[in-house]
């Protein structure tokens, strides 16, 4: 079959394209914005990409169109598909019908940490010899692709609460019918489709309703919003995880180093197992506990899961170090929610206590652009010594007023050229800089690295 994937460079839809290609389908695709790492991955597996949503980009011989949730009515390509009577389907439904039926699905849900936790879980299962399939919303460090079918029974999927498609407004994750679900955390996000946190909780409840009684829920005990979701009804055994030792949990963690690079894990009060790995931050230790617990539900021993972590490589753009030159370290990170921004900065602060820490933020997500998180941004940037924010003209909120609350430790700049130029002029030996965006940031990371390499 020949498929056309619309929105193919999104992390989820790019994974769908990779799975379809692996299954032997001929795949082509379009997107409004094409940029690495997904564009590189798709090109490497022989998928033709075209920029823009033009009806003529859909081949005449294409038998099915897989439509991403970024597309809506009024788009010329969407209108052409509907008018032609072509067969079309959403990405989550295609995944369910063509890949997940008959598999043991392990779904990782939550506001933060889904990509890292999904990558951890897939790697633990791989290390244990279970040859899992997976679809991850990023390019995992331990695998050459973000999605594969896998030879084993298990399939790991990053389970997003965002809506499915213009014709299906349910959350993506209700399509997956998982046997094991990780509930990592829950905060307000996606202000473009959810009016409040209660409406998001309702979607998480719909997910829980799909989990069978002989499955497992792996729940962050430190997040009391999840307790509220569970109070709506749960029919599946629950195992909780936490670092806070005041909480009674099945899976406990203990930091052995403030940076999070060393920690201990214990299951049901048994002897602790120590872990040393390359990741930083308390939040990543929580991600590891969740992944270990989920892998255990799929039959992996605690020792085998903990042993896998030493060889774990984080996904692309999850605190990815791009440069260490002349005493300056540059990181690229996907953080785009105030909590994720703060935990990323706290992890860097703990691992580089004597460095000057510089945060560089593009408020790009729909919630960020709408201003849903504007009030929380100053506090989330507080761990940094200096912050730069991209102040695009289309932002409906006052970025200058936001950054002014940092007490002279921040700048709001109107374009990426100006931002990169001023940032480069500011840097000195001993600095640690992290650029944070859930998009391309107009190549800001690459451009800064090029300048620093030449200087």
From TrEMBL:
Leader sequence segment: none
Domain Mur ligase N-terminal catalytic per the UniProt entry, residue ranges: 3-97
Binding positions for ATP per the UniProt entry: 110-116
EC number(s) from the headed UniProt entry: 6.3.2.45
One term of GO molecular function: ATP binding
Mur ligase central domain boundaries: 108-295
Keywords: ATP-binding, Cell cycle, Cell division, Cell shape, Cell wall biogenesis/degradation, Ligase, Magnesium, Nucleotide-binding, Peptidoglycan synthesis
Cofactor: Mg(2+)
Family classification: Belongs to the MurCDEF family. Mpl subfamily.
Protein name in UniProt: UDP-N-acetylmuramate--L-alanyl-gamma-D-glutamyl-meso-2,6-diaminoheptandioate ligase
Species of the source: Pseudomarimonas arenosa
Gene name for this UniProt entry: mpl
